[in-house]
TrEMBL record, chain A:
<protein>
    <submittedName>
        <fullName>EAL domain-containing protein</fullName>
    </submittedName>
</protein>
<dbReference type="Pfam" id="PF00563">
    <property type="entry name" value="EAL"/>
</dbReference>
<dbReference type="InterPro" id="IPR052155">
    <property type="entry name" value="Biofilm_reg_signaling"/>
</dbReference>
<dbReference type="InterPro" id="IPR035919">
    <property type="entry name" value="EAL_sf"/>
</dbReference>
<dbReference type="InterPro" id="IPR029787">
    <property type="entry name" value="Nucleotide_cyclase"/>
</dbReference>
<dbReference type="InterPro" id="IPR013656">
    <property type="entry name" value="PAS_4"/>
</dbReference>
<dbReference type="InterPro" id="IPR000014">
    <property type="entry name" value="PAS"/>
</dbReference>
<dbReference type="InterPro" id="IPR035965">
    <property type="entry name" value="PAS-like_dom_sf"/>
</dbReference>
<feature type="domain" description="PAC">
    <location>
        <begin position="229"/>
        <end position="281"/>
    </location>
</feature>
Automatic annotation (TrEMBL), chain B:
<dbReference type="InterPro" id="IPR029063">
    <property type="entry name" value="SAM-dependent_MTases_sf"/>
</dbReference>
<dbReference type="InterPro" id="IPR006764">
    <property type="entry name" value="SAM_dep_MeTrfase_SAV2177_type"/>
</dbReference>
<keyword id="KW-0808">Transferase</keyword>
<protein>
    <submittedName>
        <fullName>SAM-dependent methyltransferase</fullName>
    </submittedName>
</protein>
<keyword id="KW-0489">Methyltransferase</keyword>
<dbReference type="GO" id="GO:0032259">
    <property type="term" value="P:methylation"/>
</dbReference>
<dbReference type="GO" id="GO:0008168">
    <property type="term" value="F:methyltransferase activity"/>
</dbReference>
<dbReference type="Pfam" id="PF04672">
    <property type="entry name" value="Methyltransf_19"/>
</dbReference>
Length: 715, 271
């Protein structure tokens, strides 16, 4: 179409420009003005067509009005301005092409009708669009609402599921304390009656065991001064029993932060609490007698001893006499029933406040009294106990008499620890027992000290062996005929970290008692044999050096004796004939063949066996024949009489007799405790073979013997 | 009782909504009387408000076209409101069919309406989420399914950051979103400001008060300097952060309404 200046298309465009200038400022379009104008051109064309049509068609013009709404010209001002533009410029710019109405008046009339139709089309389209958009936004609001409602419903459902399904009890109350909601778990905790909870007031639920701060915290929370608190609290169930809970209460605030509700979470701890109490009871009581046990007694004793200096305490430590015999002979069932009866009787003896009876274990019981005058009281208590035990106990128609030994400790609190007190009581009880039993003794510090040392050494023995605290001294054995050194006796010593060097008399009985003598004895044997071998190597020319080692009764009975001895000799490379094992006469008294068999084996191998301390026991001379013995060692008591001058003639006669007897049985004789030259000479004359004693040398380190042997060999 | 965090917010259409007011300013009827009342009251103080909205739409259009020119065909429009006309996907998909757009708004009515409008358009999605919790947006199924974050995205924050108060850390939120975007991504921000306002600050405050007290969605006016902070990590493209009519105009800025010079627009490219 022609766009030459002044042509119809140019005029149409100029109309569109005027139109867009008029309405662009009141449109909401995001198009630029040129873009917008471009959109108006087809509309202008339609207006021109409407103007020029032979018959007026209002549809074209209505369409233009509606198209304005489509171009987002929804402001009524856009219509007003459009109508102004059409009125003023449509005929002017587009009238020439009109082929229908010839006269200008007709064109003006047509233009007027066009305006009416544009306005009607605009209004109709605006009304439609408005209704559509209003409906759309309403629907959107409804959709959004139902989406939110759905989400709320879902969250509410989740919340309710959590609330009702929770294993923990949940309750909600207002700030006055009125209970609004409770969940099933809470109802179950309270015994299943919901109406007893809902609508009730929290403040009614006091319990005598409420800790003082429980209600203080509650009031702080409902006043909004605290966000939450957690306490252990008891409630009454409808049936009067106690419900124990771990209770957590939180304050719930509204969106503006104002306190609104309180939320309680409760965990039922009743069972756990009962279990704890039961466990505590079981942990602190003796299952058999129901008396407090060692744990509880120590707790109590600790409290008593920590009570302050003005307080005193008295303790009776009771051990039944001969209970083991009853147990062994009548059985444990009877023993147990006896203990139960004893426990009952003891309980009846200690009923005053501050008194307590406990079973420490086995047949050991303690009774404790506290107060200001325990010196008299504990004596009285011990008396009551002895008296209570004096009546025989009837079990299965059998009358059993029960006796007990009691150790009493009494004194001011805060001086000793519970362990010290109990040890003293234990020691004292043993003293009562060794004094024959069926009596009570009062603790004595000196007796305690002795026992404590003995006890201390006993317990320190095993570690001492591990730590190498033992060592061996050697005392030379001298041939009386020529005064030459022919060997030595090994004597074990203990270098105790506190007590210094201890002789065998201090610890060998303890080791024998505890069984440690076996490993200790083996160590001594090995050490001595090794030493003997060293001597042999150093001065083979001084003749065979022998080593005497003591053997305790328990070692003698130990099944490994022969094997151990053989093994040691072989390993060290010492001939059996260089070893002499010393056994005390008392160890062999009444020894049967089984016990003697190992000794015989050793003797057959060439090991010498010496009968130690001969003459101290009930020396059964007839016995000598059946013992596998090569040497008699005369006890020092025989030689003591020869220290003075002139020597005791009776002693002389006895020694002479023994020597002659021994030689008659092909035994050699060694004497101990030789302290003077006169003694030595006497013994030589009497025919003794070997001697040892201070006259020659005290026990000393292995090198001393080496020197003596050298001196002997060169001298 | 305090609402649990996971319970959705309710809908109260007796409270005006910024997106429906926006629609009203753009000549739409997606609004209720309560919205129109608030809109008219704000206009008593600032009659040119509709022009500002219109300028926002116009500059957004230019920015979307700019992004398309840069080869970007993925758009994340947060604070999209009610899509009256001339929306991102209309502009983008007309020029580049298959361009993908995710709309995000926290107004449930706007989201519901957008869903109705966008039904049947597989390359668009609408998500109910809040600019203040970027993680919800970035981890949403809509974003993950429609946008490829390994390729550049145009992040559109049109007339939305001025509804986020400083206490809610809008700079941090933009930074968190930006961190998830590939290099070459564009950030488009328009923001209200007293600067460039053709009326006194006191008068403008009247409109601000309407938003604060009636709409309950405070309008936070920020300075050029404050607005520039949103572009940390971006290089602003020419002509920088400027009044809307001055950003790559297609017609003479002198012809524009004076109100359209209030506030700023900026486009930045992620390094």
């Amino acid at each position: 179409m022609s766009e030459e200046p002044g042509g119809p298309e140019d005029r149409l465009r100029r109309f569109a420009t005027i139109w867009s200038r008029a309405i662009y400022p009141v449109t909401a379009t995001s198009l630029t003005r040129p873009e917008f104008e471009h959109e108006l051109v087809p509309l202008a064309r339609r207006l021109r067509a409407a103007l020029a049509a032979r018959a007026f068609d209002s549809g074209q013009a209505r369409g233009v009005g509606a198209a304005l709404i489509g171009a987002h010209c929804t402001d009524p001002e856009a219509l007003s301005r459009t109508l102004d533009v059409v009125d003023a410029y449509l005929v002017l710019y587009c009238g020439e092409e009109a082929s229908g109405p010839e006269r200008e008046d007709d064109l003006r009339a047509r233009c007027g009708r066009i305006q009416h139709a544009v306005a009607a089309g605009f209004a109709a389209a605006l009304r439609d669009r408005t209704l559509v958009e209003q409906e759309a936004i309403s629907r959107a609001a409804l959709d959004a609402r139902s989406a939110v409602a759905e989400a709320l419903h879902a969250s509410e459902a989740r919340f309710r599921a959590v609330f009702h399904g929770a294993a923990i009890g949940i309750g909600i109350a207002d700030l006055d304390g009125t209970v609004l909601e409770v969940n099933d778990a809470l109802v179950r905790m309270f015994g299943g009656a919901e109406q007893l909870l809902r609508g009730r007031n929290v403040a009614e639920w006091t319990h005598p065991e409420d800790a003082p701060q429980v209600w203080h915290l509650y009031h702080e929370l409902v006043r909004g001064e605290r966000e939450h608190y957690r306490v252990e609290k008891a409630f009454y169930r409808p049936d009067g029993t106690a419900l124990w809970t771990n209770l957590t209460v939180s304050l719930l605030r509204d969106a503006d932060g104002q306190p609104q509700y309180q939320l309680a979470l409760m965990e039922d701890t009743t069972e756990r609490r009962l279990l704890n109490l039961r466990l505590r009871y079981e942990a602190t009581h003796d299952a058999l007698t129901g008396l407090p046990n060692r744990t509880l007694f120590f707790e109590r004793l600790e409290k008593v001893l920590g009570a302050g200096e003005s307080m005193r305490f008295g303790l009776c430590y009771l051990d039944l006499d001969g209970f083991k015999t009853i147990n062994d002979s009548l059985g444990h069932a009877v023993g147990d029933r006896l203990l139960v009866e004893v426990a009952d009787r003891l309980q009846s003896c200690a009923t005053a406040p501050g008194e307590m009876v406990a079973r420490l274990g086995g047949d050991e019981f303690v009774a404790l009294t506290t107060g200001a005058d325990t010196a008299a009281e504990v004596d009285d208590l011990a008396g009551r106990i002895m008296h209570a035990l004096s009546a025989p106990i009837r079990i299965d128609g059998r009358e059993l008499s029960v006796r007990g030994s009691i150790g009493i400790v009494e004194g001011p609190a805060s001086e000793r620890s519970p362990a010290e007190v109990l040890r003293s009581a234990d020691i004292t009880m043993y003293r009562a027992k060794s004094a024959g039993g069926n009596r009570y003794e009062l603790a004595d510090p000196e007796a305690d000290a002795r026992a404590i040392t003995r006890h201390g050494l006993t317990t320190a023995l095993p570690a001492a062996l591990d730590r190498g605290e033992f060592f061996i001294e050697y005392q030379p054995l001298v041939r009386l005929g020529d005064g030459s050194v022919r060997g030595a006796e090994a004597l074990v010593r203990w270098l105790h970290p506190q007590h210094g060097v201890l002789g065998p008399d201090r610890f060998i009985p303890l080791a024998e008692h505890t069984g440690l003598i076996v490993p200790l004895g083996r160590w001594v044997l090995e050490e001595s044999v090794r030493q003997a071998r060293v001597w042999q190597e150093r001065h083979a020319d001084a003749g065979p050096m022998r080593i005497n080692v003591n053997l305790s009764p328990m070692q003698l009975a130990h099944p490994g004796l022969v094997a151990d001895t053989v093994e040691i000799l072989e390993r060290c490379g010492l001939s059996p004939s260089a070893l002499c094992l010393e056994v005390t006469e008392s160890a062999l008294i009444g020894a049967d063949d089984d016990l003697l068999k190992p000794l015989r084996r050793l003797s057959e191998m060439g090991v010498d066996i010496a009968l130690d301390d001969f003459g101290t026991g009930y020396s059964n001379l007839a016995n000598l024949r059946r013992l596998p013995v090569n040497v008699l060692k005369l006890d020092r008591s025989f030689t003591q009489g020869m220290q003075q001058f002139p020597a005791d003639p009776v002693d002389l006669k006895i020694v002479e007799g023994i020597v002659s007897l021994a030689h008659g049985l092909d035994l050699s004789v060694t004497v101990e405790g030789v302290e003077t030259g006169a003694q030595a000479e006497q013994l030589r004359v009497l025919g003794c073979d070997t001697a040892q004693g201070w006259y020659y040398a005290r026990p000393g380190p292995p090198d001393r013997l080496h020197e003596l042997a050298l001196a002997d060999a060169t001298g | 009782m305090q609402r649990p965090a996971w319970a959705p917010h309710g809908i109260d259409i007796t409270v005006p909504s910024v997106s429906r007011i926006y629609d009203y300013y753009l000549g739409g009827s997606h609004n209720f009387e309560v919205d129109r009342e608030a809109a008219r009251r704000a206009m008593e103080f600032m009659p040119g408000l509709p022009k500002i909205m219109q300028a926002n739409r116009a500059v957004m259009r230019r920015a979307v076209r700019y992004a398309l020119d840069q080869g970007i065909t993925q758009f994340l429009d947060i604070g999209s409101g009610i899509p009256t006309f001339g929306n991102v996907h209309e502009v983008a998909q007309r020029a580049s069919p298959g361009a993908r757009v995710v709309y995000v708004d926290h107004d449930p009515v706007a989201v519901a309406h957008s869903k109705a409008v966008l039904e049947g358009n597989p390359d668009t999605a609408v998500l109910a989420a809040d600019l203040r919790t970027p993680k919800d947006i970035l981890t949403s199924a809509e974003v993950r399914e429609l946008l490829d974050l390994d390729r550049p995205v145009a992040l559109l924050l049109i007339a939305v950051l001025h509804f986020v108060e400083d206490d809610d850390d809008p700079v941090g939120a933009v930074a968190e979103l930006s961190a998830a975007l590939a290099p070459g991504s564009l950030l488009v921000v328009t923001h209200a400001s007293y600067e460039g306002m053709p009326i006194s600050t006191d008068r403008a405050d009247g409109a601000v008060d309407v938003y604060r007290n009636e709409v309950r969605n405070p309008l936070i006016m920020r300075s050029h300097e404050e607005i520039a902070r949103f572009f940390t990590g971006y290089e602003t493209v020419e002509p920088g952060i400027v009044p809307m009519p001055l950003w790559r105009p297609q017609t003479a800025p002198e012809d524009e309404d004076p109100y359209t010079f209030a506030g700023y627009v900026g486009v930045g490219r992620k390094a």
